[in-house]
Specification:
- Helix content is 26%, strand content 27%.
- Helix 3 runs antiparallel to helix 4.
- It is of the alpha+beta class.
- 32% of the residues are buried.
- Strands 1, 2, 3, 4, 5 and 10 form a six-stranded antiparallel sheet that branches.
- The protein has a single domain, classed as Alpha-Beta Plaits, CATH 3.30.70.560.
- It has four helices and ten strands.
- Strand 6 and strand 7 form a beta hairpin.
- Bound molecules: adenosine monophosphate.
Length: 175
């Protein structure tokens, strides 16, 4: 019997070793692993959060369909982070690749609170670099019953700028 397909939203971040290439490689790898890509945001350049003495980040959000359980998605994300050289020397350190599971379920309705997984992601409503790309691909989505446009209105929108790339995030387009 076929397992039910669910939606999953994944946030991408990088500020080391050619961030654009890091994001593109991770996106290609997630697809190659079997996640079915539905919609990808543009890439946003954003000022670092927490530990601010580090290069700007490149961030994006992609929505997928999958019949995988969310624990398996987390495992694959962590494997891909490791494959791209992710180290964790201290909290909020620069990183080659950060993959976070933002939301799960066809209407983003599934909540999880286990030892290694919190969904919706713990900081989803606090971070413009997550809310802005998520709102670009799903402008009407609700998180814990709250519409994303309302969440966005509360956030400081300085330090975030859309980068023009081709659809595959392969290269930056200059006008
Ligand atoms: P980070 O440093 O952002 O890569 O955080 C990794 C840790 O967060 C791992 O130990 C995960 O088990 C945990 N975690 C909890 N909820 C999530 C989530 N929604 N997506 C990704 N990692 C999560």
């Amino acid at each position: 019997m076929n397992k039910k397909l669910q939606r999953v939203w994944i946030a991408f971040g990088s500020n080391m070793n050619n961030p654009l290439e890091q994001l593109k490689t991770a996106r290609d790898n997630l697809r190659a692993c079997g996640l079915i890509e539905e919609k990808a945001s543009n890439i946003y350049q954003t000022a670092a959060w927490g530990y601010t003495e580090q290069p700007d980040f490149f961030n994006a959000v992609v929505r997928y369909k999958t019949d995988w359980g969310v624990e398996k998605i987390l495992e694959i994300c962590q494997l891909l982070e490791a494959k791209q050289g992710r180290e964790r020397p201290f909290k909020n350190a620069p990183r080659t690749l950060d993959l976070d599971i933002l939301l799960f379920g066809n209407n983003a309705e599934i909540s999880i609170n286990s030892a290694d997984l919190i969904i919706p992601h713990k900081y989803i409503k606090e971070r413009n670099f997550v809310i802005v790309p998520l709102m670009e691909i799903d402008p009407k989505i609700s998180i814990n019953g709250e519409e994303i446009s309302i969440i966005a209105k509360r956030l400081e929108m300085t330090g975030i700028m859309q980068i023009k790339t081709d659809n595959n995030w392969k290269k930056i387009l200059t006008e």
